[in-house]
Amino acid sequence: MAELVLCFFATTLKLLFAFLVALAFKGALWVLNLFILAPLSDPLRRLPGPTAGYWENHFWELIDPNQSPKTHDVWTRRYGKTWRFHGFGAFDLRLVTFDSRAVDHVLNSPNYEKPWQTQRFLSRLIGQGVFAKEGQEHRWQRRILAPAFNSAALKEMYPIFVQKAEELRDRWDNIIGPSSSIPYPTPPSTPPPGERESDTVDFSSTKNTSPETIIDVCDWMNRATLDVIGLAGFSYSFNSLTNKCEEVCSAYREMLQAAEKPPGFKELFALWFPIIEDILPDAATRAIRHSRKVINDAGHRIVTTKREDILAKTHQIDYAPERDILSLLIKSNMSEDYTRRMTDEELMDQISTLLFAGSDTTSLAISWCLHHLSLNPRIQERLKEELQLLHSIEDMTLVDKLPYLNAVVQETLRLCPPAHSTIRVAMEDDIIPLSYPIRLRGGAVTQEVHIRKGSYVHIPIEGLNMSKDIWGKDALTFDPDRWMCPGRLPARHLGLADVMSFSQGPSSCIGWRFAILEMKVFISTVVRYFNFAPVAEIRRFNTVVTRPYVKDRLENGAQLPIKISRSHDRL
Ligand code: HEM
Questions:
Q1: Mind listing the pLDDT tens digit for each residue in 323-349?
Q2: Residue 418 CA, closest ligand 1 atom number
Q3: Residue 97: beta bridge partners?
Q4: Which residues form the pocket of ligand 1, taking CB atoms under 6 Å from any ligand atom?
């Protein structure tokens, strides 16, 4: 018996050993292939591009927004409109293209998807919503979401933009001090819809006797746009502008802070082996999990109540359903074939997605706009003059059609796109057509790029918006006038709204009209009533989006201090 046990034990050991040897052999082959064999046959090797040591990368030059405009400019002059660079090293060659035909091809072809690393990062943060999905699932979610973003839906949401913009204006007015002669109502005595009486802030505590004051525009805009997406997205009051950020609002902010930290070795490793986060969750992982739970619990309550409400009242003759994005989404979902409806979990993930994709981006775009207006008093003055013609902000068509406001918004989106760049991966070997030929390393000239399955393509959103070839020599200057003279614009635009900021193709920004309208309402409301002046040198840093910080104060995180005073003479 003992012999039998020994024999069994020895055989198991042998098998285990053989298994480990096979595993090590497979691992060695994988490493050999990854670092040596595959790079040797990578067609991108033939492309022009910057050189570096085998283990060196070019991420920093390309992704740091304080360096990338210069890098793009110098490298496109040196290598042409399409080149390759080192990802994690020389074994990881990646493509960058400024060629409109190639950009069109990559962003519109089903052969290119968000890399699985991006999808995993997004799923961990915001669940399985439309942003994290690809392929058929993505197309299906996008179709159900579409009615919530059409013109009719926007019209319904417009009063929310106005309500929140005016609330923000009143908060700022109150911070400046009591000597206001501004002929608009002081902060409302009755709280805005959705806020409880007790949630309104005590304005006296923030008053300042000086006729001007410095505010952190970034923080204020962040709160305002979060309130907007709460109300417009799912009729939910975050009360962020009242300083009484409630639990979902705090959870969301906590989640963003955790996600903003640049990934270290462990985070990168965890993308490949997510189990590590289960075994050894760090503070960021715990924060994200906790935030997701809070957001999901609230999301569950919201989805259930809304669906019951819609089901119960649909047949009432005078029923006017809520017009927020989630209600429209639930309605659109209910009209789908029974087997193809989104589950409650999927609906909840759309809530996190909208929070993530719709608030921070728009808040940054508005902040950058006020920054540029503060640096350019003449442009600010001209905008104020146009806004004086606007009798009421309530008229959506009027606000949307103001030509100079439109030019200022377009120019901000061009020069300060909140998303610095995006990335796709080739799902199969492909040939990318080019409009501008490139010279390969051997000297041959070609009008197409061969790319193999698994290669990454970086789409330089900001680079395309700032390209001198596309926008002219003054591409780096904030000049809204270029949008007023059609002759100064490129013959052919890439991207939604004529800029690359919202990307293009089937995964482009679904909320672009929403964002532009929200920007217009906020900018016109605050620029009518306040003057903006710079107080610090502002730099940019890139986390998930491009944020401002005060030069030499990066440790304080995103900040955009601006001096505001009332424009008494205009009123
Ligand atoms: C100025 C503000 C905004 C900017 C610059 C912006 C930019 C973008 C960009 C560049 C993408 C594509 C990302 C990629 O290709 O990898 C995107 C996707 C998306 N955006 Fe926006 N966005 C803004 C506002 C909004 C708003 C207000 C909403 C919703 C209310 C929204 C919802 C989304 C969603 C759901 C996606 C994913 C679309 C998909 O994968 O099909 N965005 N956005």
A1: 788 888 888 888 777 667 888 888 888
A2: 5
A3: 82
A4: 114, 130-131, 142, 353-354, 357-358, 361-362, 365, 417-419, 422, 501-503, 507-511, 514-515
